[in-house]
Amino acid sequence: MTEILALRPDLVVSTLYMERMGGIGLMNALRAAGTECKFVILTDSWSTEAMRDFLHSGGFDFLRKPLNLKQIEAVFENMNDKQEAGELL
């Protein structure tokens, strides 16, 4: 998390389940530290409740494993469209 705070990226892609802190916990901790980056979760298992929690907590999008190029392009296109429409800071 320290590295992310130092880099201040526009986008963070994280896996949903990690040992010390899950992806949603990481996103919430970064938000609490003042980071305004967009957050995308990468997962191979996803519950409706986890998706709802992630999106309601300010998550931008999610990617399902195994990844393919079209999924990644769609996330970036969605982000670009929202930014051009003024929906993203």
Strand content: 15-25%
Query: Mind telling me the CATH class?
Result: Alpha Beta
| Strands ordered across the widest β-sheet | 1-2-3
What would you say the CATH architecture is? 3-Layer(aba) Sandwich
Number of domain modules: 1
The portion of residues assigned to helices is 40-55%
* Name of the CATH superfamily: Response regulator
CATH topology: Rossmann fold
Computed over alpha carbons, the radius of gyration is 13 Å
Number of helices: 4
Shape summary: globular
* Average residue pLDDT: 86
The main sheet comes to: 3 strands, parallel
- What is the terminal-to-terminal distance? 22 Å
User: How many strand segments?
Assistant: 3
Order of helices and strands: HEHEHEH
| Low-confidence residue ranges | none
Structural class: alpha/beta
Strand and helix map with partners:
Layout (H helix, E strand, L loop, with lengths): L1 H6 L3 E5 L7 H10 L5 E6 L4 H9 L4 E4 L4 H16 L5
Parallel strand pairs: 1-2, 2-3
Features:
89 residues; 17% strand; alpha/beta; single chain; globular; 4 helices; Rossmann fold
In a nutshell, what does this entry contain?
The chain has 89 residues and is α/β, with parallel strands linked by helices.
